[in-house]
């Protein structure tokens, strides 16, 4: 490679001195133009910054209004309040007589607000001053006492400032809506832990008066019931025992009454002595006592046993009456007389209501 380069140099014709100076001059011009091109962006940025600094210093760093840019600034400022940005003739801040302020009542310690409308109803901007009753004030007191509320600053004076818009269009653009003040209920809630329960004075917890098993259920949860309706039937052995004792006592009392009647007749005829009549009378009294005791046992279980009704008829008829004792006719009509036990104890509702639970 070195040898080839030397040979090519030797083959090139020798240049003259004038040609060399021309080439050097052309290279210098090109370098000057290239440096000038590189410095143009920097100079443009510096010129722009200088222009912004001059404009800001000249205008006080405030953007000019559009009217000033189009040459209508003087016409716009004529009759215009520059401080409050409303027409000068309608500015209530500069001309307070256009809308005089009402009497200032100051801070209300009871309700915690300025210019309290409860203590001074005349502050309401209405055609007729509202009349507040003691019930209205009591309702407000209960509302304030319902929960802890943030206290207002009694040193605040913002309520004394009045805001004025230059036109109705400005109010609409600002999204301000105006409504008439009226009385209406305010719903407030307080977060607290509690338990929801029924009123104990209006709840009846019913259970059987004797131990047993549930034989039939007449009512379900959610059913409406009336006082005295049968809710369920319980098969209780104690009920069968009490009915058996009453049936036995009725039969014994009937026999002792017949024996006493016969002895009384024989005594009157002089066939038997008076002592025999007294013995039968004593036995009759004991039988009647056992009968009343057996009747009371059924009444304690909630089964109304009427002796006068049970005495009528034969032993089989009395046994049938005791089997369905205490059951309403509507329930008896649904039962099979041959397969229904005589130990059923009804559970009745003690009030009008709804079945809410069943265990």
Description:
It is a single chain. This protein is mostly helical. It is 44% helix and 8% strand. The protein is built from 11 helices and 9 strands. The chain has helices spanning 2-11, 17-59, 66-69, 73-77, 134-145, 168-173, 237-269, 274-300, 307-311, 315-323, 329-332; strands at 80-81, 86-87, 107-108, 113-114, 213-217, 224-225, 230-235, 344-348, 353-354. The strands form 4 sheets. A 3-stranded antiparallel β-sheet has the order 5-7-8. A two-stranded antiparallel sheet has the order 1-2. Helix 7 (237-269) packs antiparallel against helix 8 (274-300). The radius of gyration is 57 Å and the shape is elongated. It starts with a helix and ends in a 5-residue tail after the last strand. The model is unreliable at 1-15 and 69-77 (pLDDT under 50).
């Amino acid at each position: 490679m070195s040898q080839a380069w030397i040979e090519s140099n030797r083959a090139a014709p020798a240049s003259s001195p004038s040609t060399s100076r021309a080439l050097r001059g052309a290279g210098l011009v090109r370098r000057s133009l290239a440096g000038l091109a590189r410095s143009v962006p920097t100079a443009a940025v510096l010129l722009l910054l200088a222009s912004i600094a001059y404009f800001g210093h000249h205008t006080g760093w405030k953007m000019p209004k559009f009217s000033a840019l189009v040459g209508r600034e003087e016409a716009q400022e004529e009759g215009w309040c520059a401080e409050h940005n409303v027409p000068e003739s309608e500015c209530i801040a500069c001309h307070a007589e256009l809308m005089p302020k009402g009497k200032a009542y100051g801070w209300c310690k009871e309700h915690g607000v300025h210019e309290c409308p409860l203590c001074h109803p005349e502050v309401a901007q209405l055609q007729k001053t509202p009349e507040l009753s003691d019930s209205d004030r009591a309702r407000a007191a209960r509302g304030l006492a319902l929960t802890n509320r943030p206290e207002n600053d009694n040193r605040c004076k913002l309520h004394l400032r009045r805001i004025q818009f230059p036109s109705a269009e400005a109010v609409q653009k600002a999204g301000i809506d105006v409504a008439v003040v009226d009385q209406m209920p305010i719903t407030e809630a307080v977060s607290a832990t509690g338990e929801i329960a029924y009123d104990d004075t209006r709840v009846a917890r019913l259970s059987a008066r004797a131990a047993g098993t549930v034989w039939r259920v007449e009512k379900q949860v959610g059913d409406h019931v009336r006082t005295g309706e049968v809710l369920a039937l319980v098969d209780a052995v104690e009920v069968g025992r009490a009915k058996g004792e009453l049936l036995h006592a009725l039969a014994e009392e009937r026999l002792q009454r017949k024996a006493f009647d016969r002895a009384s007749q024989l005594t009157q005829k002089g066939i038997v002595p008076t002592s025999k009549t007294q013995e039968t009378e004593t036995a009759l009294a004991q039988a009647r006592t056992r009968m009343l005791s057996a009747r009371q046992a059924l009444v304690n279980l909630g089964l109304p046993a009427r002796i006068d009704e049970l005495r009528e008829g034969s032993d089989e008829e009395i046994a049938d009456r005791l089997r369905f004792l205490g059951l309403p006719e509507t329930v008896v009509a649904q039962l099979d007389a041959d397969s229904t036990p005589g130990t059923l104890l009804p559970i009745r509702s003690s009030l009008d209501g709804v079945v809410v639970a069943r265990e």
